[in-house]
Amino acid sequence: MAISMFDPGRDEPEALCVCKETQVACGSNNRTYDSVCQMNQELADSGFPDTLYLKHWGPCRSVPWIISGPQDVGSSLGQGLALDCEVKGYPIPSIHWEFKADDGTSRMLPSDDLYMAVQVRGGPEPYMATSWVQIVSLRHKDTGTYTCVATNTEGVVRASAQKKEKLRLNEEYMEKARESDVQKKKELKRDEELRKKKREGPMHFASIESSTETVYTSRTVRRTK
Length: 225
Hints:
- By secondary structure, this protein is of the alpha+beta class.
- Helix content is about 20%, strand content about 40%.
């Protein structure tokens, strides 16, 4: 560790600590540090000397772990949907997606489905990778379990999201909404018929002629000649 002196404005001298080693370090606790100085500072703060030491230069090797996995998201049929997954580890994990449908069939995504797309990029932090599954238009056949799978030489980790229950709840809501619309239309039609009868007046006469008599009828009067 080097100490440099500078004198801004010729006031009191100040010391600025600069770590000579800027490369990443792996501690004996299998934790990756930005520098060996950061590791030494943690050791000093702990008050337990010789409990932490430099294992090797470079990041510690580790199995992948999920920083942010896919979450259940409710969406209407025909709408778009996106699932994301953030993983970390060293070596940097690769990500792929698996899908298990309600009928038990499984496949890798995106397969040959034109309504699905899978994207993978590095970041947003060192030793991380991020992936998305995008569904252009949600269909009944898309209900099932979506699994993010992260793999490196140290191991494999999975995180899943279930889309079945969310969609069923949404379909029940849509069915109730359709039934409500039908009921409202019936009520509007009935109200319109009542208004029409009121416009025609309180008395409605119909003349029924025959060879022997004429009958006059109304809502309140019935008289035979």
